[in-house]
Amino acid sequence: MKKLMVANWKMNKNGNEVMEFLHAFKPKYSQKRDAWIASQALYLKLIINEGVSAGLQNCSEHVSGAYTGEVSPRSFKEMGGTFVITGHSERRQYFNETSRSLNAKNRTVLAEGLTAIYCVGETLAEREANLTLSLIADQIHQGLNDLSLANENNLVVAYEPVWAIGTGKTATPAQAQEVHAFIRQTLKAKFPAFGDKVRILYGGSVKPDNVEELLSQKDIDGGLVGGASLKPKDFLALCGDV
Ligand code: 13P
Known about the structure:
By secondary structure, the protein is an alpha/beta fold. It has helices at 15-25, 44-49, 73-78, 89-94, 99-111, 124-128, 132-143, 173-190, 208-215, 232-238; strands at residues 4-8, 34-38, 53-56, 83-86, 115-120, 155-159, 199-203, 222-225. It has one domain: TIM Barrel.
């Protein structure tokens, strides 16, 4: 399975900075690992025009209609988009998204032919209360309930422990692998034809100096990266192009 590194730029970078990044990144990128970028929606066309796979950080569960301020996944697909990140913990935390409400969004994203990168993960309090695996099972069952996959590339699952996001505290490779193995089992039971080929990404303070050890774990198929994806040099290192 080819490893996948996804840059989640969140609400960072203006248009000039996006172009500067692409011009530094592209000539050195070897395609050894897949590299996808989620910028602010405003700049995605710039990324697509440079031939790099681009994704939204959120979208509407509807494809058109009277939903002021929303972004349609259908329009994004028509524009050449590749994927949508759904259920990032910042959206669950600040915008009240729930696994149940994300189910509709995941369905629309798949129906429109885009890849959903569905995020799951526990808070520190949940981990300390030993609730990690049951919480992740609920997030997967609710968010992906009754979804049908046409192939293994329709879906990516990202495990992002909330306590590791932007904190510099990375889950140890063993901690991450334990959860990834559990996600793998859950996906195999849910999607018998494709569950063993859906890529499972780890996110939370992934950096050039810890990426290889994380990627060496059996069920870690790539990374969803915030801070360390903002500099071309670091993102190239994460893509295996030092
Ligand atoms: P950091 O890599 O900055 O910890 O962010 C992780 C993340 O939220 C990616 O979606």
